[in-house]
Amino acid sequence: MIADSADSAARSTPSAADRTMRAIAVHPGTAGSIHSRDVPRPAVADVPDGRGVLVRVLRVGVDGTDHEIVQAEYGRPPEGDDFLIIGHENLGEVVEVGPNVAAGVRPGSLVVSTVRRPGHSIYDRIGRQDVTLDDVYYERGINLLHGYLSEWYVEDAAWVVPLAPALSSVGVLLEPTSVAEKGIGQAYAIQRRLPVWRPEHGLVIGAGTIGLLAALILRLRGLEVTVYSRRRAPYLNSDLVDALGATYASSSDRSLADVAHDRGPFDVIFEASGFSPLVWEAAEALGKNGVLVLSSVTGGDRRVEIASDRINEGFVLGNKVMVGTVNASRDDFERGADDLVLAESRFSGWLERLLTTPVSGLDDAAAVLAALEDAATIKAYVEIAAPTSNTASR
Ligand code: BGC
Ligand code: ZN
């Protein structure tokens, strides 16, 4: 955008308040260092070639990855900084765009930006850094790039995904939805190896945000779904499973083999429990020609004994596949944005019920940690600003 002379004069002598904004950050490597701070405010021209999109942040979700960063188990600051602005699950409203931003994104658009940025491998060069070969990766709010837990951010239009205005409150769930979309999308892509694949029975392990969203997506694809998790029903998460027309089973009552006997054979299993020993039980419970998707990032050093001959033989004689998945591509975000709209019409009000634990504003960093650690939390999120009437259509 070309600034007129009054504008550029104003820009060269901004007041301190104009130049800074509030953010929540950590000192990576120092446990308990989560804090609020003032940081420079971004401008649309920070992104080259007129592709900048300046976004006013509405809501930012936090998850287990943020918790690990706060505990100093994960995360690195951008080069030259000793702090990292956290927050990768973003939702915002566009305030300004550069001259080379396509028409789908305009001031007032509701948007979510992806998390990972290109490194150097051939996949990164085609915008598929979610399957990078690089060892170092760049993720906003996680690794080497500042995140979104601030009043504004600027991003290259290549990574900014527009959303239907009706998603102005639940759109903060798009990033975790994209992670589930990628895993399920990979499963369907892999199953093209079979001359026909008509999945009927799906199993999701883990009833946290990702597990619930994976169950939602599988229901939207027409599968019968079982969700297997530790806690006994009834509680909010099991109620949400019921509300999808899916079935909840607790590992406190039943083995996975038993559940597979009743509810399988499972054509697709999505593992999102965070507890790696369940992977091997899932491998045993998988049906013939089935696909097992692993999405839990397990940083520990746990070892278990497994039924190695039986699992191996089951995979060989049953032509089964196991696949790992992380992060998401722009396409996964776009599919997720469509599925959120579909979810609002098929399971009206369901997404909103995931938003259990709001934190107000960017000044109370301790409250963010408390919300994450609250046992009743499904999704904790920081409320930063309200949408303008432009995007708020409800
Ligand atoms: C994020 C992903 C990211 C992964 C590993 C997850 O919490 O949602 O985008 O790739 O952490 O850093
Ligand atoms: Zn995440």
Description:
By secondary structure, this protein is of the alpha/beta class. It folds into two domains: 16-169 and 355-383, Medium-chain alcohol dehydrogenases, catalytic domain (Quinone Oxidoreductase, Chain A, domain 1), CATH 3.90.180.10; 178-324, NAD(P)-binding Rossmann-like Domain (Rossmann fold). It has 13 helices and 19 strands. Strands 3, 5, 6, 10, 11, 18 and 19 form a seven-stranded mixed β-sheet that branches. Helix 5 (174-190) packs across helix 11 (330-346). It is globular. The structure holds beta-D-glucopyranose and zinc ion. Beta-D-glucopyranose (BGC) binds at residues 63, 65, 88, 115-116, 139, 142, 175, 179, 297, 326-327.
Give a quick precis of the structure.
With 394 residues, the protein is α/β, with parallel strands linked by helices. The protein contains 13 helices and 19 strands.
Q: What's the layout of helices and strands?
A:
Blueprint: H1 5-12, H2 16-19, E1 20-26, E2 35-40, E3 52-62, H3 64-70, E4 84-85, E5 89-97, E6 110-113, E7 116-117, H4 122-125, E8 138-140, E9 144-145, E10 152-156, E11 160-163, H5 174-190, E12 201-205, H6 209-220, E13 224-229, H7 236-243, E14 247-250, H8 256-263, E15 266-271, H9 277-285, E16 286-294, H10 308-317, E17 321-324, H11 330-346, H12 350-354, E18 357-360, H13 365-373, E19 380-383
Parallel strand pairs: 8-9, 12-13, 12-15, 13-14, 15-16, 16-17, 18-19
Antiparallel strand pairs: 1-2, 1-4, 3-5, 3-10, 3-19, 5-6, 6-11, 7-8
Helix pairs in contact: 5-6, 5-11, 8-9
Bound molecules: beta-D-glucopyranose and zinc ion.
Beta-D-glucopyranose is lined by residues 63, 65, 88, 115-116, 139, 142, 175, 179, 297, 326-327.
